[in-house]
Amino acid sequence: MAALTFDSARRDPALRGRLIAIVAAFVVLWPTLVISEFKPWILLDEQSLGATGRFLADFMAPAHSAEFLDMLLRETWNTVAIATAGLTLALLGAIPATLIINEQLSVSALGTGRMRPLAHAVRQAVRWLLVVLRSVPELVWALLFVRIIGLGPTAGVLAIGLTYCGMLSKVYAEILESSDAHASDALLANGSGRLGALLYGALPEAASELMSYTVYRWECAVRGSVVMGFVGAGGLGQRMDESLKAMNGAEVASMLLVFIALVVLADQFSKIVRRRLG
C-alpha cells in the first residue's frame, strides 16, 4: 500500500498530456515531411560525399591573391552601401507613412476621438499598402526588380526600400502610439500641425527606441543584401553565387569569412549605438 502511494506521488500528472501532444505533433508533421520529399540520407551516398569532400578540401586554403582581395573589399563595401541606401529609401517612405497612420497624431479625432470618414479611409488605404509592402520578402522584390531593370545593386536597394518601408512604418507607429500622448495632444489642441506635434511632442520621448529599432533594421539589411546578391542584386552575395556555381571552395571560404566578420561588426555597431541611446 505504501509502495502504491509512493508511485502515485512520483507519477507526473502531465505525462499523459505530453504523450498525446508528441503523438499529435508526429501525426501532423509526418505528412509535411512526405510532401516536402525531405530525404537527408541522400547526403550520405557515395557521389554526394565525394563532391562534399572535394568542395570542403578547398576551404582549407582560402583565396588570398591581391586581385581577389581587392574585388572582395570592393564587393563588401558595395554590400554595406546597398543596405544603407535601401534603409535610407525606406525611411523616406516610412516617416510620412507613420504620420498618416498614427492615430495619436490625428487632428480630425482631436476632442471627439472620432476621425472624419475621409481621414479614416486614407489612413486605412495607407495601412493596407504598408501591409502589402512588408508581406512580400525583400528577396522576392529583388527577383522582380532584377527581371525588370536587370542585374545590379539597384534591384537590392529598391527591394530593401519597399519591404523595410512597410516594417518601419508599422513599428514606428506602434512605438509612438505607446508613448505618452499628453505633449502631442497639447500641441495639437493649441493649433500645431501633425509634423510639429511629432517633432516636439511624441518624438523626444520615443527617440531612443525609434533609433534603436532603426539601427537594428540596418543590421538586418546588411545580412539581407548578401542574400539578395544570390538572385543578381549585386554585392558580396552575387560574387559568392558565382564562386559556388564554379565550385571554387577557396573563394567561397574567403567570402564566408568576410561575411561573418561583416555581420559581427554590424552587430557590434548596433549594440554600441543601442547602449548609448539606452
UniProtKB/TrEMBL annotation:
<feature type="transmembrane region" description="Helical">
    <location>
        <begin position="15"/>
        <end position="35"/>
    </location>
</feature>
<comment type="similarity">
    <text>Belongs to the binding-protein-dependent transport system permease family.</text>
</comment>
<feature type="domain" description="ABC transmembrane type-1">
    <location>
        <begin position="76"/>
        <end position="270"/>
    </location>
</feature>
<dbReference type="GO" id="GO:0005886">
    <property type="term" value="C:plasma membrane"/>
</dbReference>
<feature type="transmembrane region" description="Helical">
    <location>
        <begin position="80"/>
        <end position="101"/>
    </location>
</feature>
<keyword id="KW-1003">Cell membrane</keyword>
<protein>
    <submittedName>
        <fullName>ABC transporter permease</fullName>
    </submittedName>
</protein>
<keyword id="KW-0813">Transport</keyword>
<feature type="transmembrane region" description="Helical">
    <location>
        <begin position="139"/>
        <end position="162"/>
    </location>
</feature>
<feature type="transmembrane region" description="Helical">
    <location>
        <begin position="220"/>
        <end position="240"/>
    </location>
</feature>
<dbReference type="InterPro" id="IPR035906">
    <property type="entry name" value="MetI-like_sf"/>
</dbReference>
<dbReference type="GO" id="GO:0055085">
    <property type="term" value="P:transmembrane transport"/>
</dbReference>
<dbReference type="Pfam" id="PF00528">
    <property type="entry name" value="BPD_transp_1"/>
</dbReference>
<feature type="transmembrane region" description="Helical">
    <location>
        <begin position="246"/>
        <end position="266"/>
    </location>
</feature>
<keyword id="KW-0472">Membrane</keyword>
<keyword id="KW-1133">Transmembrane helix</keyword>
<keyword id="KW-0812">Transmembrane</keyword>
<dbReference type="InterPro" id="IPR000515">
    <property type="entry name" value="MetI-like"/>
</dbReference>
